[in-house]
Amino acid sequence: MAKKVVAALKKAHSKNYTKVIRAVKSPKTGAYSFKEEIVPADMAREVLSKQ
Questions:
Q1: pLDDT-based confidence at 29, cuts 50/70/90?
Q2: By three-state DSSP, how is residue 50 classified?
Q3: Domain tally for the chain?
Q4: Closest by alpha carbon to 46, among 24, 23, 20?
Q5: Distances in Å between the alpha carbon of 49 and those of 3, 11, 14, 33?
Q6: Higher pLDDT, 22 or 11
Q7: Could you tell me if 18 and 44 are in contact, meaning their C-beta atoms sit under 8 angstroms apart?
Q8: 24 pairs with which residues across the strands?
Q9: Distance of alpha carbon 22 from its chain centroid, rounded?
Q10: Phi, psi (degrees; rounded to nearest 5) at 27
């Protein structure tokens, strides 16, 4: 599945997007899970700065 997403991001018409992977800690168990988002490249820093 990940290969399809990465391949789709490399197409000419979608060069303005970035895949953001963020580790999120569960308050209940303390375990980490990963959230993946595809956002416009200019908004990547804004998405990462949110909590």
A1: very high
A2: coil
A3: 1
A4: 20
A5: 26, 27, 23, 18
A6: 22
A7: yes
A8: 33
A9: 7
A10: -70, -25
CA separation for the pair 1, 44 (Å, rounded): 22
Average pLDDT rounded to a whole number, residues 14-28: 85
Q: Which amino acid is at 45?
A: R
Report the pLDDT averaged over residues 26-42: 90
Let me know: does 4 contact 12? Beta carbons within 8 Å: no
For residue 33, give the amino acid letter: S
Query: Residue 12 belongs to what domain range?
Result: 2-49
Is residue 39 within 8 Å of 17, Cβ to Cβ? yes
In this prediction, residues 28-42 reach a mean pLDDT of: 90
Cα separation, 23 vs 50, in Å, equals 12
